[in-house]
Structures are given as C-alpha cells and as structure tokens.
What does this fold into?
Amino acid sequence: MRPFRFTAVTSLDQLGPPGPQTSFIAGGTTVVDLMKLEVMTPDELVAIDQLPLRGIREDAGGLRLGALETMSAVAAHPAVAGGYQVISESLLQSASAQLRNMATIGGNLLQRTRCSYFRDVHSACNKRVPGSGCPAITGENRMLAILGTSASCIATNPSDLAVALVVLDAQLRLRGTGGGVRTVPLRDFYLEPGDRPDRENVLQPGELITEVLVPRPAAGTKTGYVKVRDRASYEFALTSAAVVLNMDGDRVRKAEVAVGGVGTKPWLLPQVGAALNGRALDRTNLEAAASLAANGAKRYPDNGFKVELIQRTVVRAFSRLGGLV
It folds into this structure.
C-alpha cells in the first residue's frame, strides 16, 4: 500500500472539491483491499463513516435507506425483511457475516468488479488503464459477463443488492461537494462499458450516494432473490435473479426480473416479465418466458454455460415465489 493523507469528516459541509487522486472510505471492505493490491492509489483518503447518512425508515412512499447503514442492519430490519424480502435476501447472500457488519449500502453499490485482470496490476485492463486491452475476452472469463459486454470489457458487476434494487425501481439520492442534490434511478446509474469501461456510473467527481429510495410494492406483491454460486457462502454469483410477482387469481398481473452474475451492470429483463404478464404461472409459461433471459448474450470461451444457467435461475426464482417448488 502506498502512502496517503488521511482526513475524517463529520459534516457534509466539510466536504470540499476533491483532488484528482482523492477517494472516499466508509466501511472500507472494498477500498482497503484495492489499495493493498495497488489497484487504487489515492493521494488522499477521506473517511465519511461519521457523516449523518444513516437511518432505515418506511413511509407512505416506500423505504428510505441511509447510505452509511450497514448491510447487516438493513437485512435484519423488520420493515425490510417483512415487506422488501428481495433486499434482505440479496444482502444475506452477500459476502460474509463479518463483512456485512462493516460494509455499507452505498459502498456495496459502488464496489468494483472482481475480474482477476482488473485486480492484477501486472495485467492489462481497460477498466483500470484505458487503452491497455482486455485479456479477459480470450482468457479466464468463467465468472464474467455475457450481457452488456463490449470489445473493451466483459467485467461483471458484483453487487447482489444492486440487482434487487433495480427490479424494485429504486432511486439514489446524490449530493455534490457544492451542496447540490439530485435523484437518479438506479436503472440509469450504472453504465455499460462501451469503449470507456473506466466510467462505471454517472457519479460526478466528489458526489456521494446519501440515500436509497425504494417505492412501496403494490399490495399482494411477493419478491425474492435466488443466487447460484460455486459454494454456499462468501462467493460471488455465477447467476442470480431478483423477481417481483403479483398475481390476479391464477394469472400473473405483473412480473419483473433483474439478473446478476451475467451483466456488466445489473441487468433488467423486461421481455421476460412481459411474456409472463396475463398468463398462468406454470412450468410451460415460465420456461417460455425464461428462454428470453439471455437474448443478446455473447458467449466467451469459458462462460457460455451461463446462457442456460440464467434461464434456469429465472425459472427457479419465479417458481419459488409462485409455490411451484
């Protein structure tokens, strides 16, 4: 780890324009790792963990999550576990208990990819050093993306929580160092790599996520999260599916699904939901709808299996909510 200046702030008013090599740190579960690897080499590290950005509350509009709340606190909160199960389930299947006790909601949404080439400073990586190349395309890519990829990058977004929040159409409250505030739908927050994989989201220099706003699901809505991985804990997704299901008798009134482990960002699948809406929730209709889940996918040497696996994951997630398994 290289030398750096350390500053702690306790008020948003103390945040000034950041220098070009300034980084923020809250729980530190990602930042410290990347600094040890020298993937991140900030000149200054600004600790924001004492800022007044906590709180978990529900009002008539839905759920409000402070960006500095820990993953474990949000997962265990009665309002979340009772009415937004997909959030609780995605968090409880993330990382380890020790990390969930430290890691924050905002930090989780901003965590960097686990692509091994990105984390190895001796390898080329367009995300880390623009223009240096993407050896993952022809190299080790079993864990990497098949949706939203480009000739410059196939790195997967690693956040389970982001997949759950995307399917719920959550919004992020952002605050700049000048005090300006804006609200951005999470579905628009992450960027596909294109030819600029170093730009992962729409945050401007010095902007912070201050709050996550989650609309209240309609009455009778069920939500859930299914994650497929190589081991049962402390592992990133091969595939995952966050689903929303609202039934009208034996027919689907509304179905939505977002998937993880397969996209360069949390990937919403509106075509799958549209194929289920108005139909009976049975195995035949589920499999027909899920067959659309990998539309547009690009297979790479080691991860072509994800095409079938994401289809099966979507079927499993809806089957679980619909009582078919």
